[in-house]
Design goal:
- The protein is mainly alpha-helical.
- It has four helices and no strands.
Amino acid sequence: INSRVSATARHNVVLMWLFRTAIEAREAGHFDGGFGFEQNVLLRVEEIRAEGNYMECILRGRMPFSYANVVQVLVDLVIALYPVMAFSSGLSFQIGVLGAIFITMTYQGLFDLAKRFLDPFHNESFWSG
């Protein structure tokens, strides 16, 4: 989506549109709103906005990028050293190869998932590699 509004503030645009539409609908006679209608609608929109902003604060407190680099190095070490460990412990060649393939797929998949959690709005290029 190409927009002048950042990905973390798009919910505010939608909520303000909702508030404005509700007020215009009441003024046009589509809603029967008495005293305090605007105040009540604004209060509910502010509650939803506060929850959205709270989620934004949680997402801004994500893990630092250096942690992701350390995890990548550790995952690569485990993947690289598993065949050495498997063959030195007396496992057969086939089980060692299958284990290396399994470990490579699961650890790398978990690390890719961790990168997606690191940047949930895809603001930076963590997902690509």
